[in-house]
Design brief:
Distance between the termini of chain B: 56 Å
Number of strands of chain A: 10
Low-confidence stretches of chain B: none
Structural class of chain A: alpha/beta
Order of helices and strands of chain B: HHHHHHHH
Radius of gyration of chain B: 21 Å
Structural class of chain B: mainly alpha
Helix content of chain B: over 70%
Mean pLDDT of chain A: 93
Strand order of the largest sheet of chain A: 6-7-8-3-9-10
Bound molecules: adenosine-5'-triphosphate, magnesium ion
Oligomer: heterodimer
Number of strands of chain B: 0
Shape of chain A: globular
Chain lengths: ~240, ~220
């Protein structure tokens, strides 16, 4: 479970998150939607402290990550993240990408890590690519490896920051399929996305951010059919 | 024109032996320089202000004064301050090592900063600690990018090493000079030394290109 209380973030004088509070239950799938620059990425990145919140509190399970005494590395082990730009390690093979962190961070034996890595590669449909380097993969394949890499740490929760935005249209589906199958396993997820159809289908809840504020927090049916705020109405009108 | 290369033929083996001396100085100095360079670069990009300061001042001094001054200071100056004897060879290796450390640290620093920020974020998100991230994720990528610049530094070192002549190390340069003096054939022996240096540089360049090509292939 993730609890967020009055989260604020400023860059210099500019406040980009203006007091956001919400709770994400275990197993819940959250879609985060909003115009460009509204603070979606910043919000997500505050959860695993890639950005340091200016004020407010975040709890991941029992640990308050905003408490300076908490070991943030331990928290990050529990929160997997998938980036728009994949960020695979280019000098490692696909399998090494996946096994590096379990071996070096969690102390898993190489044998076990590789066993689990191959299992995950099978799950994302890339078994035959384990010895390739990332440059040899298509965007969709890279992103699936990135998902497998995050899953290899057995996280409690997964964060996705526009996982399909850097992909050619024909590769979006294969990545969304992997995320959907992950949803079926009961993984807790927060996904920043512009894929409205996907959000409607998969999410339990939609968070609509605008100008650093959480403007709507509703079920997908509610949000897409009868958005309450003017800002959400305008946004949906523009993109649908 | 008074030119006669046959006059130095018997001295050629003697001059050639200088290659080993030169390579030994350059090789060891490069290792020292590389080690110092990595450490200084890590200090420069690190969080500790004191270390950053130290690294910046170190670099500034070694780049801002003549190499030959640094060499003479180490060779003649150190025994005066501390009661120890510094051999010409160790003075040469230390001076070149310290000096190239300053240059290499700048090359490595730039290489580290050029590594995509996404790599750091992905590492952090996976909970990879700073040291391991540097060693296994950042440095390997940085070194690959800066390989040509490092090779250049190594080539410069090879050529510049000729100034160890002034403290009496019998490298290629010194030997050519001695032969020139003995035979009164300075031109011939110095040209011969020049050819050796030039060939060494060409070979190093080719090796560098080959290594680079191999690294390219791996991605
Ligand atoms: N490191 C930073 N320094 C200064 N300003 C920043 C920084 N990162 C983000 N911002 C600003 O914060 C605001 C929110 O950015 P954020 O990336 O969270 O938006 P977003 O909703 O993810 O947008 P997009 O859909 O384009 O990805 C933007 O105005 C952005 O310019
Ligand atoms: Mg974003």
């Amino acid at each position: 479970m993730i609890k967020i209380q009055d989260l604020r973030k400023s860059y210099g004088k500019v406040e980009v998150l203006k007091g956001i509070s919400t709770t994400i239950q275990k197993g819940e799938i959250i879609a985060i939607i909003g115009p460009s620059g509204s603070g979606k990425s910043t919000f997500l990145r505050c959860i695993n402290l890639l950005e340091t919140p200016t004020s407010g509190h975040i709890w991941v399970n029992e640990a308050e990550v905003t408490n300076p005494k908490v070991n943030i590395m331990k928290v990050r082990e529990q929160v997997g993240m998938v980036f728009q730009q994949f960020n695979l390690f280019p000098h490692m093979t696909v399998l090494e990408n996946i096994t590096y962190a379990p071996i070096m961070v969690k102390g898993t034996s190489k044998k076990d890590a590789e066993l689990r890595g191959r299992e995950l590669l099978k799950k994302v449909g890339l078994s035959e690519k384990e010895s390739e380097h990332p440059v040899r993969l298509s965007g969709g394949q890279k992103q699936r490896v990135a998902i497998a890499r995050a899953l290899a740490m057995s996280p409690e929760m997964m964060l996705f920051d526009e996982p399909t935005s850097a992909l050619d249209p024909e590769m979006v589906k294969e990545v969304l399929e992997v995320i959907k199958s992950l949803a079926l396993t009961g993984m807790t997820m927060a996904i920043v996305t512009h894929e409205m159809g996907f959000a409607r289908e998969v999410a339990d809840r939609v968070l609509f951010l605008d100008d650093g504020q959480l403007v709507e927090d509703a079920s997908p049916t509610e949000f897409f059919s009868s958005p309450k705020s003017k800002r959400a109405q305008d946004f949906l009108e523009k993109i649908l | 024109m008074n030119l006669d290369f046959t006059q130095i033929v018997t001295s050629i083996p003697y001059i050639l032996q200088g290659i080993g001396v030169t390579l030994k100085i350059v090789g060891v100095a490069a290792l020292i320089g590389f080690t110092i360079g990595i450490l200084l670069a890590l200090c420069k990009i690190g969080r500790f202000k004191g270390l950053k300061w130290f690294a910046d001042i170190y670099t500034s001094i070694f780049r801002g004064t003549p190499l030959i001054l640094q060499l003479l200071l180490i060779y003649y100056g150190t025994p005066q301050l501390f009661d120890i004897k510094v051999t010409a060879y160790s003075a040469a290796v230390l001076a070149f090592g310290f000096n190239s450390g300053a240059y290499i640290s700048e090359i490595i620093r730039a290489g580290i900063l050029a590594v995509d920020k996404g790599q750091l974020e992905a590492s952090m998100a996976l909970g990879i600690p700073y040291k391991k991230m540097m060693k296994d994720i950042v440095l390997p990528q940085a070194l690959k990018n800066i390989l040509p610049a490092l090779m250049n530094e190594f080539i410069t070192l090879t050529k510049e090493s000729a100034i160890v002549t002034v403290i009496g190390v019998t490298d290629i340069m010194r030997r050519a000079y001695i032969v020139g003096g003995n035979t009164y054939r300075y031109f011939e022996s110095l040209i011969f030394a020049g050819v050796i240096y030039y060939l060494m540089v060409i070979i190093l360049t080719l090796i560098g290109k080959a290594v680079e090509r191999r690294m390219r292939r791996s991605d």
